[in-house]
Amino acid sequence: MYIGRFIVIGPEVGAYRVSSRSFPNRQVVDRDGTLTVAPTPDAPETDNPYISYNCVREVDGKAVVGNGSQVDPITEKLGLGYPARDALAETLLALDYEKDDYDTPRIAGVVGADEAFIGIVRKDALLVKEVDEPTLVATYEEDTPRSFQFDAETASTAATEAYDQEFEHAVCAAGVRVTDSGVETAIENGE
């Protein structure tokens, strides 16, 4: 099944995977601790604004995970002291779903050592909820947050487990683990 981009958010561990039929020539790169989805060197040129974006950012001992430009303002709001739920809800509502040919939803989550939240804004709904177990939401088919079997305990295993899910058209993935001692990130580019 093709579910597009997806996130798995739980307390302490989270992951993001790019799955794409249209733009498979992408990778996750580490830019001084911020994980960014970017075209590979051999990718064809495109003016599509949804191809490159930050997908994981750290702020105040939390990690923000998402499928687009919403990651940056959510991170900024958390840095200003907003509660995670409010930062997600306000940003997703303000940016709305992507105005592309598929009305692609925006998905995002906040992973903390003691709390985690997941959210999606679709053409017909805005959903933000606190989660206490691994929870998945995707841009297609699985566009309502649901409990999800995800056994990763480190950033590296989170990235690999997300990448290896049987959903179609895996391109790259990122994983995070948040503990009281900090945020660790990992990348899986399928190489």
Automatic annotation (TrEMBL):
Belongs to the archaeal IMP cyclohydrolase family. Keywords: Hydrolase, Purine biosynthesis. This is IMP cyclohydrolase. It is an enzyme of class 3 (hydrolase). Pathway: Purine metabolism; IMP biosynthesis via de novo pathway; IMP from 5-formamido-1-(5-phospho-D-ribosyl)imidazole-4-carboxamide: step 1/1. Its EC number is 3.5.4.10. GO terms for molecular function: IMP cyclohydrolase activity. Catalyzes the cyclization of 5-formylamidoimidazole-4-carboxamide ribonucleotide to IMP. SUPFAM superfamilies: Archaeal IMP cyclohydrolase PurO. One of its GO terms (biological process) is 'de novo' IMP biosynthetic process. It comes from Halogranum salarium B-1.
